[in-house]
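Batch job 17 of 40 flagged for manual review because the log was empty.
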Amino acid sequence: MRALLKLALAEDIGSGDLTTRLTIPRGTRARARVVARQPLVVAGLALFAPLVEALGAIGEAGAGANSLVLSEQVGDATAVGTGASLCVIDGEAAAILTLERTLLNFVGHLSGIATETAAVVALVRTAGCTTRILDTRKTTPGLRRLEKYAVVCGGGSNHRMGLFDAVLIKDNHVIAAGGIDRAVRAALAGAPAGTDVEVECDTIEQVAAALEAGAKSILLDNFSPERVAEAVRFIAGRARIEVSGGVTPETVVAYAKAGPDGISLGRLTHSARAADISMEIALLV
C-alpha cells in the first residue's frame, strides 16, 4: 500500500506542484475541511497518515508535510449526509494543496464503493434476509486491497483476495481438467488444510456432479432467482451456496429470498461511482 500511495503522489506531483510553488508563500498556514456533497458511507480516511508520510518522503516537493494534522475525523464506515464534514486538516497551505487531489481521489473512489455496497446490503436486510453481500476480483489493478476494504466499510464481505487464498473452479478450469469430477477431486486432494474449494456450476446437473465429487461450496452462475431456489432445495444444506452473475440492485432481493448463503456482485468495485466530496480551505492567522 505504501508503494501504491507513493506512486499516486508521484504521478500527480512529478517534479513539484508548480501552481502552489508560484502562488503560495512558504509558511502560510491554513485549515482545510473535507466535505461530503452527497449522502455517503466514508472509506479511505485511514489513508491520510500514510499519504502524509509518503508526501514528506519525496523531498522538496513535499515540503511542509510534517506540519499537517488531522482533526475532527469521522471514522471509516460511517454514514453521513450532504454537507457533513469528514475531517479537518491543519498545517502549511502548500502541503495541503499539494496533497488535496490525491487524498480526494482515494476517499471519493473508496467512499463510492462503500456507499454502493451499503445500498445493496440495506435492500437485502430490509427484506429480512441475512444473505451476505460479497465482492469479486473485478477490481482496479493495484487497488484491490483498498477496494475490498471499502466493501467491508459498506457492510459487505470479502470473497477471496486473489488466486492464492482460495480455490474457485470455474468453467474453463472444468474444461481444461476434463470435467467437474476430476477438477473437484484434484483440488480437494491437493488444497492446503482449511482452504475453501468452491465450484462454479451452470446447471443443476453440474451441481449434482460437484456434490458427488465432494464439493462443499457451490457457485450458481447466471441462474435466475427461480432456478436458485430450485438449486437450494436440491442441495439441501450439503454445501454452502453462492450466487453470481447478472445480479443488480433491482434483482438482488429476489435472489436473496431464494435462500443462498451469499451473493457476489462485481459492480460493487468495477461500477461504483465515486462519491462527490470536496475540500474547502481557509487561512489561519
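Reviewer: the log was empty due to a logging misconfiguration, but the result itself is present. The mean pLDDT is 96. Unflagging and moving on to job 18.
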